[in-house]
Specification:
Layout lengths: L4 H10 L4 H10 L1 H19 L3 H26 L7 H9 L2 H17 L4 H11 L8 E5 L5 H9 L4 E6 L2 H14 L5 E5 L13 E7 L9 H10 E13 L14 H9 L2 E10 L11 E9 L1
Parallel strand pairs: 1-2, 1-4, 2-3, 4-5
Antiparallel strand pairs: 5-7, 6-7
Bound molecules: S-adenosylmethionine.
S-adenosylmethionine binds next to helix 6.
Length: 298
């Protein structure tokens, strides 16, 4: 039976320079990391075969290199310098060769990066375990789909509707979905998260908006859509990158108070917040961090 050690072993083989730090973060949060990676290892090998672990490790290495380079450019420029959004859509979100390795990295950073691991705790303990019985959950920007699948794994009573703008990401999510056998309660389809507010008459007891806001030209409509679609007893798991440059990070947040204020302006209230930094090089002017919040209706 495969488990989280399959991902760690692949890092030793294919991303040696990153393996010690990833292993250290995983070891300090082993129970939480295994909560995610044990089922994911089973689903990934059933969906793609055992070569998937080396592919995931290569994707993780390429992503970490890209992040380090983008952060250097950011330090020099003093602001994010993203490509125009239509180019990001065609060259990132619609490009299978770019998107599939990126999706492996996007999920592996949760147990392997110190700035992300507390998001997992908040997600599991304060979002999934707090959802109302039989909750209907919307996942915006589901990407690889693993957050939504972990919701179904943790809560056998809930149903998840996942959307993402990227066709190759949705294909990955659907392939893992089939292997997970949660397909009676989880769906993934291609859709722009900014178009969901036009859905009429549908409300959700849970909404996930993980690492999406920084990909938008303006995140305010996302918060308004979330407020519109959230049931009275609903809860939201929201997360975003702060002062972290990447090829497809379009909106630059410099302070935790910025997404928090946007949520409040949309009629939401923040009931929990975590924010952690990665270690920047000495003398850096920007401090890359990732923040996650639980939101409710005001
Ligand atoms: C960093 S990944 C996050 C994936 C996942 N939510 C997670 O936390 O690992 C960003 C995702 O946002 C998606 N995305 C970007 N703009 C979007 C939009 N306007 N509507 C829906 N998805 C979008 C991308 O395709 C990508 O899958």
């Amino acid at each position: 039976m495969v488990d989280s050690t399959a991902f760690l072993g692949a890092l030793d083989r294919k991303a040696k320079w990153l393996a010690p730090a990833a292993r250290a973060t995983f070891a300090s949060n082993q129970q939480l990391g295994s909560w995610l990676l044990d089922p994911l290892a089973r689903w990934a090998s059933a969906a793609y075969g055992d070569g998937v672990f080396d592919d995931a490790a290569r994707g993780y290495a390429r992503y970490c290199l890209g992040v380090a380079k983008a952060q250097q450019v950011y330090e020099q420029a003093g602001k994010y310098t993203p490509e125009a959004l239509p180019d990001v859509i065609s060259e990132v979100y619609e490009d299978e060769g770019y998107m599939v390795p990126y999706m492996w990295a996007a999920i592996l950073i949760y147990p392997f990066w110190p700035s992300m691991v507390n998001h997992l705790a908040l997600y599991r303990d304060d979002f999934l375990r707090a959802l109302a019985p039989n909750a209907k959950v919307l996942e915006t920007a589901a990407g690889h789909g693993v957050m939504g699948l972990m919701a179904a794994e943790e809560r056998p009573d809930i149903a998840v509707e996942g959307i993402d703008i990227s066709p190759p990401a949705v294909a990955v999510a659907n392939r893992i979905l089939k292997a997970s056998r949660h397909d009676s309660r989880v769906t993934f389809r291609v859709k722009n998260a900014l178009d969901i507010a036009q859905q009429t008459g549908k409300q959700y007891q849970g909404i996930i908006a993980a690492m999406l806001a920084e990909h938008l030209e303006d995140p305010r409509p996302l918060f308004r859509a979330i407020a519109h679609l959230l049931a009275d007893d609903g809860i939201v798991f929201f997360s975003t990158a702060i002062e972290s440059a990447q090829r497809d990070h379009v909106y630059e947040f410099n302070n935790e108070s910025e997404p928090l204020k946007m949520a409040e302006d949309a009629g939401l209230r923040v009931t929990r917040l975590v924010s952690d930094a990665s270690a920047p090089p000495t003398g850096a002017r920007f401090l890359p961090r990732a923040t996650a919040m639980i939101l409710r209706r005001r």
